[in-house]
Amino acid sequence: MKQLNLKVEGMHCKSCEVLLKDELEEAGAKDIVVSASKGTLAATIDEKKLSEAQVKKIIEKEGYKVK
Question: Which domains does the chain have, with CATH numbers?
């Protein structure tokens, strides 16, 4: 298991947080905490099932930028 802590640009409301959390849960991430006000996303991933690159791709697919 790997803990990710990412900076995410473009989130501005609660629905942004919910959208990313739902998409990442569906992909297999766990313990997801998203903060639009801080521009952060934390999650735990099993790298055998979901890579950090895949997480970033999911975030970017939804229209946000990962720093």
Answer: 2-66 (3.30.70.100)
